[in-house]
Sequence to fold (194 residues):
Amino acid sequence: MSINVYDDFFSEEDYIFIFKYCINASYFYGDSDIEDNNQKYCTGLTHEVYYYTDKNPLLEDSFLFGSGSVKSINQKKLFDLFSTSIEKKLPEYKAKDISRLYINCFAPTENPYFHIDGGVGTTFLYYPNPNCNLDQGGETQFIVDDNIYAIPPVTNRLISFDANILHKATTFRDHHRFTIAIKYGTHKSPEWKD
Fold:
């Protein structure tokens, strides 16, 4: 099992684009960390950018309406930014192996569940919130050898971990917490062939 940390992952220009995308994206409720006896336990909101079964192309100009103004987002640019930057720095991860890319949004005091992302694969999490400090919370907690370890949500930090590590988000004390999740190969079973 491995958990890796990559600080200052993007340039300031790219980081600003990513954070503005998170602020302007539309979110939905209903993604669950766990299912038990056909009961879903949902926390947080999600903005879907890409899912491997999507038949629709990624949009370069998507306009969202809400709160009296028109907001524009670019799904393709966000996907390309993550897929090419990760592949450039970590060549073993290819865009064709991305099974899902989405944004999590948690409100203060929500209490997410521990979960795994899959039996195989790798998850990357990116922390776009500015000005994070330890007293705000917002870390990602991992269970390793019956101990809890936490990675603080340092601005412009990317982490990666095995999809089968039990983990959960924690929320910020007084503002929304965004993370961008990029999952590689988590839709594949061990018998899956390319």
Observations:
- Residues 75-89 form the longest helix (15 residues).
- The CA atoms of residues 31 and 121 lie 20 Å apart.
- The domain at 3-184 is CATH 2.60.120.620 (Jelly Rolls).
- The two ends are 24 Å apart (CA to CA).
